[in-house]
Amino acid sequence: MRRTNLSTTQIILLSFLLTILTGSILLSLPISSANGQPVPYIDALFTATTATCVTGLVTVPTFSTWSVFGQIIILLLIQIGGLGVITIMSGFMIMLHKKMGIWDRLLIQDAFNLNTMSGIVKFVKSVLFATLLIEGIGAILYMFVFIPEFGAKGIWVSVFNSVSAFCNAGIDIIGESSLYNYATNPLINITTSILIIIGGIGYIVWWDVVRVIKSRTLRSNRIFKHLTLHSKIAITTTLALIFGGAVLILICEYNNPQTIGNMSLFDKIQVSLFQSVTTRTAGFASVPQENLTGTASIVSSILMFIGGSPVGTAGGVKTVTVIVIFCSALATIRNKKQATIFQRTISGDSIRKAVAVVAMFTAVMLVSIISLSMATEASIIDVIYESVSATATVGLSRNFTASLNTVGKSVIIATMYFGRVGPISLAVALGGKGENQNIVSEPIEEISIG
Length: 450
Description:
This protein is mainly α and 450 residues long. It has helices at residues 8-27, 41-52, 62-65, 68-83, 85-95, 102-112, 120-150, 153-166, 186-201, 203-215, 229-253, 265-278, 294-306, 319-333, 348-375, 380-391, 406-421, 423-430; strands spanning 340-341, 344-345.
């Protein structure tokens, strides 16, 4: 990777854009279509965007619209989008034994939002190896269900589903009804949920947990104590959101005959858990989202907005971001000068970045909601659900995506792209050079808040 006059953030944004455009051209070819007729370019562009941005919203059925060649292109886009274009390029450099310079390492650092360049090459190797290993195990587990059902084709279905689940893409080639037919299948639920959680928890947390386990005996009950603050926040918040969300969804949908109302208690619990997990930016659906009660739709939208954890395959504003904002607000309410959690002080830079991420993310989401409302005549709940899902790169829809007109599709394409590359990254990329920190600051004046 040669150094250019572009900033690292601009290169990352352009790499995603070029990947989408290349994918859209390939998907618009007759060879990519199941019936040999070219798919309209807007749908090819939409599919390339949703795959690269690991979102999962689709305007045409994946399993019946695309040929095997088209499905392979989609799967490659999902893998590239999940890991990141820069990571894939770096992986090829490592395979070819090419030396990585400072500029290459800086690109990877920004792509993963890391705080240091130390151990970058080892980090990339570990990410690529662990990704392939986990996806391989997931595919094998899926085969116990899909091979008996689909025969030899079940191998391809299993591989596709595993990569899609780990990358939190939510695209499948099973059928038009996603995972509806497997809503009460424990193996499918558990395998998919674990892949989603592992992919969404973030690579930093993986290696931190491994580090602590290696450095201490498995009998130790103080492993959590020795994790970094980032890992502690990511793990506890993820568990709280999954189980808290599942309880709320179970309560909201308990007597709803269109979702889980007619199921046994065990099945109600596992479907509620899956719904809570999949809203963390995965996009697989085991029940029709349009049949959810209004309250459950709101709960799901909140979970989608928060999303997964940083430096992973998930989207949303991220768990750590939300907790940093919450701790900062709590400190202000308690009239404390510093925000703390787990007996550690959160830095001012972290708080400012968290506020910026939430502000920009919310701005993109609101623009999307307003634009989509103007472009369609759908109900406001469908519009909000679709826009939140696209911004957070989740992929759940209240059966609305396929009915979008050209303008509506264009709005969602833009929303998915901005949601994936990160609103704050976009702002930094377009904002040019930062201010000189050595200049004299402007006079301070107090203003009224609230």
